[in-house]
Amino acid sequence: MCGIVGYAGRRKAAPLLLDGLKKLEYRGYDSSGIAVENAKGEIQAVKAKGRLIKLIELTSGGENLDGTVGIGHTRWATHGEPNDVNSHPHLSEDGRFAVVHNGIIENYLELKSFLTDKGFKFVSQTDTEVIAHLLEYYFDGDVLDCIRKVLNKLSGSYALGILFNETPDVFYAIRKDSPLVVGLGKDENFIASDMPALLKHTRNFILLSDDEIACISGTKVVIYNKNMEVEEKKPFFVDWDPETAEKGGYPHFMLKEIHEQPKAVRDTVMPRIKDDKIVLYDISLSAEYVKSIKKINIVGCGSAYHAGIIGKYYIERVCRIPVETDFASEFRYRSPIADERVLTIIISQSGETADTLAALREAKRLKSRTLAVVNVLGSSIAREADDVLYTHAGPEIAVATTKGYTTQVAALYLIGLYLAKTLDTIPQSEYEEQLKSLKNLSDNITKLLEKPEETQYLASLYYKNKDLFFIGRGMDYASALEGALKLKEISYIHAEAYPAGELKHGTISLIENGSPVIAVAVDKRLFEKTLSNIKEVKTRGAKVIAVASNENRAVENEAEHTLYIPDCHPLLAPVLTAVYLQLFGYYVAAVKGCDIDKPRNLAKSVTVE
Ligand code: BG6
What we know:
By secondary structure, this protein is of the alpha/beta class. The protein folds into 3 domains: 3-246, 4-Layer Sandwich (Glutamine Phosphoribosylpyrophosphate, subunit 1, domain 1); 255-448, 3-Layer(aba) Sandwich (Rossmann fold), CATH 3.40.50.10490; 451-592, Glucose-6-phosphate isomerase like protein, domain 1 (Rossmann fold). The strands form 5 sheets. An 8-stranded antiparallel sheet has the order 3-2-4-1-10-9-11-15, with helices on one face. Strands 5-6-7-8-12-13-14 form a 7-stranded antiparallel sheet. Helix 8 runs antiparallel to helix 15 and helix 10 (302-319) runs parallel beside helix 14.
């Protein structure tokens, strides 16, 4: 996720662009850049690695850049390390086009080789640069026709701002799947990734539909649809306060990020599935090495550790390779057994957690091959691991991870399925069925998010409880662990997760009349056993909330309430279970009035041991 802005009007563009980017820094902050165009059509671009302040200092707050039309970008790197060259805007070789982009061009590799064959020279490792060269390649006098041709070549998600030196008083904006709004001012007009960046200038906005081309000057905004017909758009007025707007209208970043999960999972999975095969183009696990693996260690902290447990169950099922999971803070103290034939998977959203970084270094000391699953490009863990599989969740602001977790689990599915295919330990029909379900995960999350009232209602029943129990078997146990952590982190209610079969060996002594027990009963294979555990706690007075799959409807006879996940391959269900339990934890904390985005005692990334 990155932030883009654009301006055309009567004022100096650069200071306004920088001001807009300041409001969008939460969308990405590893590097930034602006490009402005003066009346003679000269385009000046300035880019800088690091926080926006670096660019502000470099351009003296924008004062040393002339021009009343411009575009700007604050980056969340997905392709190519954060550095000056990879920062946006990207320019065409002839310098006539400048482009800023938020999103992922899924077919950029093939476009890059197409353009390289045509003689174009690439200077960055980004996907975005292909857009700048495609504009130059297709331009033959009609800039709108040229943009339309480029859009027809792109697959993936994009919000674009484009400068063209032959139209110095106009810039162009297009979106597909990535957010972009047009702000209508007085003798000036704007674009931004979302409204907070513009609220100080205007409260009148137009929302672009996918693949419409907006031609924006200071005096007018003309929008062309796919057939290049002019679209009349009715502006709407926004009375959000800037603080609320930064959260996209959600009351908390956490709820916003829960709702970003369909896109985050799609952006993590889809670029790695080509012609119904998994292509992990960003890691180099050769078939020969994969066949030599005798054991896999998976290491992480907090939710990343829970994702690792899902990964363990999954990889052992589909690859038949032994998998061990460790809390990162424990790993290096147990004299772990590792060598060249052990693959250590290191999971970390931030890529900076000290315990996890220390575990990575211990694994490398033992000569283990290390594969990091990380969300932040260029982070310490990403840089030090032998291979990195990036999740594309975008910046996660809330301390309690949601999209960070589900994209980690999705990444582990990709890895497991890739290994199983390489090892030939999965029948083709099963491979295809799981691949299909993996591609549908995003839509299934959307279905879950369409009915929050169920979890809101349950939260209203149980928010006063002092203790909650989570139980489950197999992968459902790992989901129970994550659900309990989510509730604890943000609502401060004591919650513990137990393997459903383990409760009777001691802890069931805590169950008394009215004790709330959340039973994750999704796995059909283990359902009868879990059902008997549910009966055990019920006979001791527990009130049971079940999370189940549609094939396990018998649970309704025992549970007070049942939440059903949409149908999916049973091994992929934990991603959907997680969404229900995130919402439950969120609404409990919300009704308690907790500081949800910044819970007491917690940090987004603990960079001390
Ligand atoms: C904790 C966070 O501090 O660190 C958790 O509160 C997170 O939400 C854990 O799962 C690990 O963080 P990371 O960035 O290494 O995944």
